[in-house]
Each structure stands twice: as C-alpha cells, then as structure tokens.
Amino acid sequence: MGELVEMVRWIAIGVGMFFLPMWVIGLIEVVLEHRREMKQLDTSNKALLQQLQALREEMAELRRTTTEHQLSLQANMEDLQERVHTLETEQKAHQVIRSS
Asked: How many angstroms separate the Cα of 60 from the Cα of each of 55, 64, 93?
C-alpha cells in the first residue's frame, strides 16, 4: 500500500511538472494578447483624437471664411446701396432740371 501511495505521488508530481509549464505559457499568452489589444485600442483612440482635432480645425477655418465672406458681402451691399442712392439722387436732380 505504501508503494502505491508513493507511485501515485510521483505520478502527480510528473503530471504537475508536465502541465504547469503549459498553464504558465497559456497565462503569458493571455497577458500578452491583452497588452497588444490595449495598445491597439490606444493607437485607435489617438487616431480618432487626431481626426477629431482636424475636424475642429476645419470647422474653425470654415467659420472664419464664412465670416470674412459675410463681411465682404455686407460691404458690397452697402456700396451698391450707396450707388443706387446716388443714382436716384442724380435722377431726381435731372427731373427737377427738366421740369424747370
């Protein structure tokens, strides 16, 4: 009976020595895979943040351009109104001269 217990103990140690390295290798693989995925997510997040920043800059540029065009259009409208007013004034002056 003592020999059987001793033999079972050696078998258990042998099995443990065989499966323990495989378990450790599996654990290391899981940890490395997790780190790789986290690094990939971090890279994806950085790329997304760069794209968002580029969109923000483009929106700011569009706002500036729109404001510039709006101011330019406003100035042109004021010039046209002034010219129309001048022409109307001249036309009234010519009508007054003709009717006199």
From this structure: 9, 6, 49
**Amino acid residing at 46:** K
**32 to 20, 21, 24, 60: CA distances (angstroms):** 18, 16, 12, 42
Confidence (pTM): 0.48
Instruction: Write out pLDDT tens, residues 43-72.
Output: 888 888 899 999 999 999 999 999 988 888
What pLDDT is recorded for position 53?
94
E strand or H helix at 36, and its extent? helix 2-99
